[in-house]
Amino acid sequence: MPSQSHISRRAAAAAVSLVLAGGAAACGPKDGADGAGAAGGKPGAAGAPQKGGTLTVLNSEPQNDFDPARLYTSGGGNVPSLVFRTLTTRNREDGAAGTKVVPDLATDTGKPNADATEWTYTLKDGLKYEDGTPITTADIKYGIERSFAAELSGGAPYLRDWLVGGDSYEGPYKDGGKGLDSIVVPDARTIVFKLRKPEGEFPFVATQTQFAPVPKAKDTGAKYEEHPVSSGPYKVVKNENDGEHLTLERNEHWDEKTDEERKAYPDRIDVRSGLDSAVINQRLTTSAGPDSAAITTDTNLGPAELAQIGDNKELAGRVGTGHFGYINYIAFNPKVAPFDNPKVRQAISHAINRTSVVNAAGGSALAEPATTFLPEREAFGFTPYDHFPAGRTGDPAKAKELLKEAGFPDGLTVTLTHSTAQNRQTSPEVATAVQQALAAAGITVKLEGLENNAFNERRWDARNTPGFFLSRWGADWPSGGPFLAPIFDGRQIVTGGSNYNHAQLDDPAVNAEIDEIAKLTDLAAAGKRWGALDKKIGEQALTVPLFHPVYKRLVGKDVKNVVISDWTGVLDISQVAVK
């Protein structure tokens, strides 16, 4: 199946940048589940939020491709969600409450037919663009169709895989006005999607910016991003150097009565990108002039910066903690000896010292140890398990026992492939921590460091996947589906492109259960089954979960109403107010 493998190609490459930009998903440790600051209270200036003022955004990465068709977002993204409304969106609340899908342009999260192969949405009354014209379902249909055009590629590919006829559709610029038959618009307020197979999580996909309405008469193709027509509380008045400097001002035709999610407190939002990360954090720390009302949507605090904050209560009170649905892990390729022997994989699992790995990842403030593939959040279906207990510092005695049973009484020598990028995830620091832990169990680890692009090409190549390497994965929305299916569904093994099923697992029982869960529209019930499937797959020791990252970000001293959900893991710009 091309679906998730295609999705994964983009997701894996973009997951880190998405979370840094606040555009993907979210999850993390218990002490910050409510978005609390390092000082123990909610970060942000005191006092009730009020409308007015200018919010400054200081970012390292420019907001390229500011076209809803080309944006790869979940929940509507962060800065994009100020301009583009979608059929559904994320609930803009702290912590676990923020993992819920809620209506946006639509009156509800969608009505499925009996087998979830058809989803129907009805638009709210009174929806208007920035020019005062009404938003219609024909505009949403057109907005989705244009995302199929080759010249507007880059967005999430779910609809190409899920919609009937989506795999061969080439977009409205080539269809002669025919459109995509699987998107039906019976009237100006109703839209129906016809899918190739049951998809109980369709409401999550309807949060992506491809579902933003685009008036056909205003479509300027590749130039649309320069001035996209706003359906949200702000409109673009300036877009310089391909998103390096964005200026947003109020859309006077946005009606807050139709939008329960976006608060839209500031009058103006000034987004400046291309800045060095250290400079961003220094400016936020100093909070001088306009920087006192500044935030970042893509720059985290690192270990050194957190150490500098130390006992400074004022600064610590301006640090928000967030968690993204993400796992850093050791991957095995069982087609490569000695990793074809389950006992060898189990031995390595027992030998891992997660305390040293967490320290290599930046310390307990920036990483939490993991023994499950799914993040420790209910939305993902988290079910506790630890099939190969290593404790906090590893169990070398148990590892040696298993190696002996595997036929290696004198230990063995293996190669661990990793990236040379200083990302504290697949980097030399983490690889060295693994190397040192396994040495205590009699396993000699030779490190193979590759430049990041070469590393990714190697681990994604099914024909040349290393036997033993560091990897990572992030989910496009808070559910077990986009976590487990790309990594363990045998039908998504790709031999001629990017492959994320590193173990090349093709278990009919696992494949069948993925299909059965996909039929469920009861997301709580689906979550329990995702958790059970994670636990079952975990018995095969195809991965060694290492840690889930934690995100720490500073805000200016005059920023109010900081909301950090377990969907995005970063401050929600739509909720922020300034003094």
From TrEMBL:
Pfam families, A to Z:
SBP_bac_5 (PF00496)
The yes or no answer to whether the keyword Kinase is present is no
| Leader sequence residues | 1-26
Region (Disordered) spans which residues?
Answer: 29-53, 219-238
Looking at the keywords, is Cell cycle present? Answer: no
Q: Which segments constitute the Solute-binding protein family domain? A: 100-491
- Gly residues composition bias: residue spans: 34-44
User: Which residue windows does the record flag with biased composition (Basic and acidic residues)?
Assistant: 219-228
Keyword vocabulary terms for this entry = Signal
Write down what this protein is called.
ABC transporter substrate-binding protein
- Naturally occurring in which organism (per UniProt): Streptomyces virginiae (Streptomyces cinnamonensis)
